[in-house]
Amino acid sequence: MRNFQQEFEARVAYIRGKLREAHADGIVFGNSGGKDSALVGILCKAACDNTVGVLMPCASKQNYGRDTDDGNALAAQFGIETRTVDLTAVRERELQALEGVCTLNDMALTNIAPRLRMTTLYAIAAAENRLVAGTGNRSETYMGYFTKWGDGACDFNPISDLTAGEVFDFLRFLNAPASIVEKAPSAGLFDGQTDEQEMGVTYKAIDDYLLHGIVNEADKAIIDRYHSRSGHKRRPISTFENP
Q: Cβ distance 189 to 110 under 8 Å?
């Protein structure tokens, strides 16, 4: 049987070690109201009282409603300091600045919000000697379901080895707000968006494939396609080496 208490203590110790190595005074993370950020927030707060979660609504109505409510519920239950930076107007100014420069496709538009959020987190981190905590899980990373230099950027990630299902199990063990545990996983990038609907495959199918090698042919084709096309996101930056 999985010992979540032991895992919790080990992950907290890992975070404390990263803070010592960096001589950092605290942690900042994006409090999206989702499952991954919830677990990261709980772990970081347990490791360092000087942990700040930042709510960063950006255009999507969902960001201002359920996402904000769930983020605040997490912060209230676990005593996490919360700040809000509304990025909607910043996104609009960016879009205006790009008018006449290029025509943005759906992918380019979607990636703007995550990159603005990471800019915000690193600005706070630099101003207050904090580390930026990453919130991506193993399933998302394998699929490449994250924005390069957006939510994929961080100083450390205490949950990168956990699949989406394992994150849910961990949150249940920690008695996280039910509204977070029970809602459909979503990046909140646009209204009505859910991860599984957008990918065309469930996290359970992805997790079964990663953990047990069990998958049907239709799901395997989707998973393999996502993984192969997103390899550049997981590789280090290519640099020239003079022979």
A: yes
Q: Please write the tens of the pLDDT for every residue from 177-236.
A: 999 998 877 665 555 668 888 899 999 999 999 999 999 999 999 999 999 999 999 999
Domain locations in the chain? Answer: 24-195
Homologous superfamily (CATH) of 24-195 is HUPs (3.40.50.620)
Give the separation between CA 161 and CA 155, rounded to whole angstroms. Answer: 16
* Own/partner long-range contacts of 222-229 (Cβ < 8 Å, ≥24 apart): 223/142, 223/143, 226/143, 226/144, 226/145, 226/199, 227/142, 227/143, 227/144, 229/144
Would you state the pLDDT for residue 52? 98
Q: What's the CA angle centered on 25, arms 140 and 67, to 5 degrees?
A: 40
Position 129 scores a pLDDT of 98
